[in-house]
Design a protein that fits this description.
The complex is a heterotrimer. By secondary structure, chain A is an all-alpha fold. In chain A, about 80% of the residues lie in helices and about 0% in strands. Chain A has helices spanning about 1-20, 20-40, 50-70, 75, 80-85, 90-120, 130-155, 160-185, 195-225. The two termini of chain A are about 25 Å apart. By secondary structure, chain B is of the alpha/beta class. Chain B is about 30% helix and about 25% strand. Chain B has helices at about 45-50, 75, 95-105, 115-120, 135-150, 165-175, 190-195; strands spanning about 5-15, 20-30, 35-40, 60-65, 70, 80-85, 155-160, 180-185, 200-205, 205. The longest helix of chain B has 13 residues, at about 135-150. Chain B starts with 6 loop residues before the first strand and ends with a strand. The relative contact order of chain B is 0.21. Chain C is an all-alpha fold. Chain C has one domain (about 1-15, about 30-165, about 175-220). Chain C has 6 helices and no strands. Chain C has helices at about 1-20, 35-60, 65-95, 105-125, 130-155, 175-220. The relative contact order of chain C is 0.16. The chains are: A mainly alpha, B alpha/beta, C mainly alpha. The interface of A and C includes residues 159, 178 and 222 of A.
Chain lengths: ~220, ~210, ~220
Amino acid sequence: MRAVRALVRKDLLLELRGREVVPAMVVFVLAAFVLFRFALGGDRLGGGVRAATGMLWVAVVFTAILGLARAFAVEREHRIWDGLLASPIDRSAIWAAKAVSTFAFLVVMQAVALPLFWLFFLQQADGPSFAVLIAALLAADVGIAALGALLAGLASAGQAREVLLPVLFLPFAVPLVLVGVQVSIGTIPPQTADFGTVRELGFLALYATIFALLGWALFEYVVED
Amino acid sequence: MSSPDAVECTGLVRRFGEREALAGVDLRVAPGEVVLLTGPNGAGKTTLLRVLAGVIRPGGGRAAVAGHELPAAAAAVRPLVGYAGHEPLVYPRLTARENLELYAALYGVSPEAVAPALERVGLDGRAGDRAADLSRGMRQRLALARATLHVPEVLLFDEPTSGLDEQGRALLGRLLGGSQAALVATHELATLAAAADRAVRLELGRVAA
Amino acid sequence: MAVVLAATLMPLAVAMIFFYVPTDVDQGYSQRIFYFHVPIALTTYTLFAWGALNAARFLWTRDMRLDLKSYVPMHLGVMFGCLTLVTGSLWAHISWGVWWYWGSTELTTFLIIFLFYCAYFMLRFSVEPGEKRATFSAVYALLGVGLIPISVIAVHTAQDIIHPITFSRNGANMDGSMFATFLVSLAALLSLAVAMYCIEMRGKRIDDRLKQLRRLAEASS
């Protein structure tokens, strides 16, 4: 536990000093929203709020992939892996720490993205319930961070790693986006949050749990040489 | 009953894909003994040290550190080993102190051990400087501090002299002169000969006769 | 042995599908694609389960032969998967007049799994052959095991987006001859898959042995 905390602290310190990942993610999500706004028709929003909500989830997933690409970059570039692997900590602790710091970065990114989303797509229209949206995004973030930390380890071993991570991740993103969009558009007036919403949020929690368990169990195989 | 060998390998094998890095290494390091590991580049010195440190698994044969078999008891081996690799294994954007604090947490060592460790390697004045801002020799000293922070029983050093200045070499000599066993891969036989008990030469993944 | 079984069952299945089973009242003659599509899909899932099982065994034992035994079913699964998508598309056209029906839970679940298969191969191609590639493939295959229930639940949960359709016609209340045909077809395709597995395994083993002999020859010369 102390090891996980120390590793998370290391990741947060490095990000504060380097400012590589989070600013890039914020700029990316902003650019994505601009693109999507125009792709959906500019002044007159084609597809309405439903389409825009879907686009929010797409933007979140792609931005997350961008952030994950740098997940183990420092360890790789400076060959620090050996230092971590020679130490007595559980390999899974490395995964857990990376998942926690990734979650933190995702939350920061979404804290900026949600107001932007409102500004770009929702100003005059009734949108999904922000309470539900935030809950859904937080649950999804856990799943993305857990799975992403594992996949970042997998992808970093291969040749074309920048291309590989998106390819490995996207099949897993489909169920996430499906239900994420479902739960979000289910709260666009005149619909309101109901039992179905709870069930859908429950799915996102299930997703997070399953991939957290798998990530914790499988990471040690990913770091072996 | 005498204590087990610090290092014991019999027929140790390790491949990477098609390439055989270790082709049957037989080696023994007694407790407290300091053994130099020499040989040309690509002979397998780094691989051998990485296997013994529990960083990578052995491919076949037998390897044991301080009586614990690898890979079965790797978790027992790692706290006992002080591994210093080719690279300093420190985070460039963290300060010297922060790097050691991280490793202290990873090794279950009290954070109070960090300041004395920095003093021992002569970096107490630069504790607040980022590792990237330190000179090569200082980074190497930081690496040695990192490797010995948890007072290991067995030292596994890979080219520890690279970049070290006079002061650094003296420090290394002091570290090797302690009671721990050490297996040190090096090209600089002359520098370390005084601190060592014997030397073993590795060629093409085997101990040369 | 499996080849013999496949060779007998496949023509039998085809015959039954085209001649024995009564014509469907609503969809006519071309509904018979169902007897291909669903068994092919089930075979694909079976191949995937087999590949994932061997992946887990590989991680447990580190026996490189299990890597091959995991990879080959996954590989065959992609081939059968393509067939599933093609027959699924045909069936969508027959049933609903479109070449792909986005509202179908089965088709969507399958598409997700198929995407996963493709990603598996991308991973495999990007790592050098050896224990590392075997380990990584096994890890990803096991992640896929988590993906299947997740996909099924997700697709059924997202009901504003995907409307589940009832398969009463083709579900449990198939009558005797339809059910028999379905079973024969399923058995035929499974034995076809097993036969292809055996052939491919034998081929890969010979290939490996050849490489080994070549290496030995080079080393001694």
